[in-house]
Amino acid sequence: MSQVTVKKVSRRAIWITACLCLFAFSTSVSQAATPSEQIAAHLEAGEFQPAVELAASVENADLKSELLSQIAMAQTADQQFEASRATLNRMPLNADRANATAAQARQQSLQGGGADFESLISLIETVVSPLTWEAVGGLGTINDFDTGGGIYVDANGMVAKMTTTEQNNRLKELALEARQASLNNDMAAPSNLRMVSLTRLEKAVQDRIAQGLPVADSMQNLAGIYQVQHIFVYPESGEIVIAGPAAGWKYTESGYTVSSQSGVPTLQLDDLVTLLRTFGPEGERIFGCSIDPRPEGLKDLKDYVAKSQAGGAISSRAVRSWTNQLQRKLGEQDVTIYGVPVSSRVARVIVEADFRMKLIGIGKLEGGSNIPDYFELMTAAQAADMSSLDALRWWLSLKCESILKSNDSDAYELRESSVLCQSENQFINKDGERVATGTAEANNQQFANNFTNHYSDLSRDDLVFADLQNVFDLALISALINQQQLAQQVNWDLGSFAAHGDYHPATYEAPQTVDSVVNHKVFNGKNIVVQVAGGVQVDVSAALSKLTATDRLENAAEQAQAGNLPVGRWWWDAKKAQ
Questions:
Q1: Exposure string for 365-404, b = 16+ CB within 10 A, e = fewer
Q2: Strand order in 332-338's β-sheet?
């Protein structure tokens, strides 16, 4: 969706937009004869799994070991370290396997692959009592560290996936270890419902700024709340309060601040302030990001595909270079961010979520067994029928069952807030422009449905999606505060949190471009299906129209109200969990 289109949306709508294009088409590839030649052809084409299956079927043990070793080295060269280890594990438990594993470890180390621990595990399992390991039915296991995901943005604004090595280096630079945050006992204790007074917090933040002190970690992490569920309004005391489950927190190896209770990211003050400003009087009241392939790149890609298909079958040895050429034809894609500062954490989160969703869709990043990629959903018959250059569009919008409010409008509750993935097929015209169709073919729709239905599982495994959920919820809270005029009710001008306030959220390198990513699969040894992905379309539509009055919240604000708090205290736990 272009930025022009977005601006036609109601000012009450919450939008986060970007663009995902998967260009899918098929052609044919010739086949080799002997197992060695077929495997060589598969490796040249980057088709590792068929090569592994073919090698495993070879009866001669020496030849099998030789072929599996070749495949493992090719996987290592392609930085597919886990797959390389799995291939080595299929070799007979003998000296050949030990030597191949050691060679793979050396090669990976020389490449700076960063995952040396994996190779070390393989080598240890190979030479130290091999039959005792869990992988072959024993009790022994070795676990490495969960390095998480992440992106980085270079000085020129180029977005790239952070490798394990880069994450480790970043960890050392920031001196971050997996550790419990320094908290008092009260704040570290789990709570089913913790309240944070935004008005009291803003005053406490302003006091620290005036004294030249940094904003405390407890403030940055909103007292450990990891899911916002309620807003309470107290006009008599001039307070707006948000509430949700909370606990202490810790820092992951990849730098996330996560709840020590649930393991999901804590809500961030920087995000809240950014979104309060977006939905405030001077804000655009919409925000988003767009990752767009350039029209000239789309045109070059379309022309190249048409020429390739007209030339007949592609040699199996040429498949890899052919798909690389597709990536070069499409070129870099432009990242556009609007409605929030381009250097804000909110911008960082939505771009990273876009980037990772794209990788899941094309099979470059694991989304879990319940979210197969587009290739896995496609049958050989479907691949053979494909001839056009299709652009598959996915976008995410806010999925919220309802927003409840009390009859006197002093309590609000978000009900089952989640993320909805939607889909559409587009086609590319002769000028390289994407044209909407308003419909989605079955596999495209199935991927979207799977992503929606298993989003909670995905967000537990990949923290950026949990972080995105927090951003969506804080956007909804900020929009509610604006729409319901809650700040006016309590006579609060947002102070340091206002558009020109003294609080300055942390800034990051602004993403500007991202490389196109290509993946392909060979079906039946002759049909090639290629996907060239260009981003993700994220669309968070307004849920405010679902605001419904209910009697069940009549006593909620009273039960959540603070008692006698010490001076400067801006958070407390509910006397009775809601």
A1: bebeeebbbbbeebeeebbeebeebbbbbbbbbbbbebbb
A2: 151-153, 158-161, 513-515, 332-338, 288-293
Tokens of 365: 């990043």
The whole-angstrom separation of Cα 243 and Cα 35 is: 63
C-alpha 244: how far from its chain's center? 23
- As to burial, measured by CB atoms within 10 angstroms (0-12 exposed, 13-18 middle, 19+ buried), residue 209 is middle
Helix (H) or strand (E) holding 512: none
Backbone φ and ψ of 216, nearest 5°? -65, 155
- Location of structure tokens 């070069």: 328
Q: How far apart are CA 363 and CA 375, in angstroms?
A: 7
Longest CA pairwise span in the chain (Å) = 84
Select from 496, 564, 490 the least CA-distant residue to 207. Answer: 496
The two structure tokens encoding residue 280: 């405030």
Q: Residue 455: which residues within 8 A CB-CB, separation 6 or more?
A: 418, 419, 421, 465
Contact 304, 510 (CB under 8 A): no
Write down the number of H helices and E strands in the chain: 22, 20
Q: List the chain residues with pLDDT less than 50.
A: 1-20, 95, 97, 102, 104-155, 162-183, 528, 530-541, 576-578
Strand partners, 374: none
Helix (H, G, I), strand (E, B) or coil at 199: helix
521 and 375 in contact (C-beta within 8 Å)?
yes
Angle formed by the axes of helices 95-111 and 61-77, to 10°? 10
**Residue carrying structure tokens 């479907």:** 382
Model confidence, pTM: 0.69
Cβ neighbours for 221, distance < 8 A, ≥ 6 positions apart: 181, 249, 257, 266, 267, 268, 269
Residue by residue, DSSP assigns 128-193 as: S-GGGBGGGTSSB----------EEE-TT-EEEEPPHHHHHHHHHHHT--SEE----HHHHS-EEE
What does the pLDDT read at residue 541?
42
- Contact assessment for residue 456 and residue 254, using Cβ atoms and an 8 Å cutoff: no
Task: Assess contact for 285 and 338: CB atoms under 8 A.
Answer: no
- Compute CA distances 388 → 229, 244, 510, whole Å: 46, 49, 36
What pLDDT score does 307 carry?
A: 83
